[in-house]
Design goal:
alpha/beta; Rossmann fold; seven-stranded mixed β-sheet; two-stranded antiparallel ribbon; 5 helices; globular
Length: 259
């Protein structure tokens, strides 16, 4: 199988995006409650207690977008933040949290699966992995699910300040070895520490490159049924012709594994 990952080519000159504003938009319990699809989105997800909220706040330049809670699994809905009025950061519920009732957990996980598989303006998923731990089954299964679903993603190893450099490198190498068993092309890997403020520039480069690709993506005219030859109708006024739409990647059919 082939993973689809956003790659930051060092040979391309990319200006790091400057976050001038970041405003909370809404919390959505399901796909139908999400904002309109006009803006590109970048989603962040990981196991409980992986440091997702701290990383989001770091990316936002110290703005407290996400609440940092001592209780794992605090995020229970899909939270949207509009950045610079032109794109969105998306805070997804963590998988594996134990403080939610089973019925609610299944509901939230299905909402995340729907979002990841069906959202046409999702540019990239940042899958967060705790670098201080050896490969965890939940992380491995989730990354495999992303690859099977053809969701574009990169891996972000968090908390690199919590362990020795040798331990971090060993855990990352072990994770790569495990996913290499079924991953034809390894995804891009980034390291970060919210405490030491490391990795922010690299992740913002990924976003900036994807935003440039979004801006330059081709547009396609909607298909219009041809008028009958025998009884042609006059062309409609321009105000009635649907506008051009951005070409989006096709989505595979839903898989059976919910998250």
């Amino acid at each position: 199988m082939l993973t689809r990952a956003i790659s930051c080519d060092s040979l391309r000159s990319v200006t790091i995006v400057n976050i001038a504003s970041a405003i909370f938009d809404r919390s959505a319990p399901d796909l139908g409650s999400c904002p309109d699809e006009s803006l590109p989105e970048f989603a962040f997800i990981g196991r409980s207690n992986v440091g997702k909220s701290s990383l989001l706040n770091l990316l936002a330049g110290g703005r407290k977008l996400a609440r940092v809670s001592p209780t794992p699994g605090f995020t229970k809905m899909i939270n949207f933040f509009t950045v610079n009025k032109t794109w969105r950061l998306v805070d997804l519920p963590g998988y594996g949290f134990a403080q939610v009732a089973r019925k609610d957990k299944a509901k939230f996980n299905q909402a995340v699966a729907d979002y990841l598989q069906e959202r046409p303006n999702l540019c990239c998923v940042f899958a967060l992995i705790d670098s201080s731990l050896p490969p965890q089954l939940l992380d491995l299964e989730f990354v495999e699910w992303l690859a099977d679903s053809s969701v574009p993603f990169v891996l972000v190893f968090t908390k690199i300040d919590k362990s020795s450099k040798a331990t971090v490198q060993a855990n990352i190498a072990a994770f790569q070895a495990r996913i290499a068993e079924w991953c034809e092309t390894l995804p891009e890997i980034y390291l970060c520490s919210s405490t030491e403020r490391q990795g922010r520039a690299d992740l913002l480069k990924v976003i900036e490159l994807a935003l440039a690709d979004w801006k330059n993506a081709p547009v396609v005219e909607p298909e219009v049924d041809p008028e009958p030859m025998a009884d042609p109708e006059p062309e409609p006024p321009m105000s009635e012709v649907p506008p051009a739409i951005r070409q989006t990647r096709s989505r595979p059919s839903k898989l059976t594994r919910p998250w």
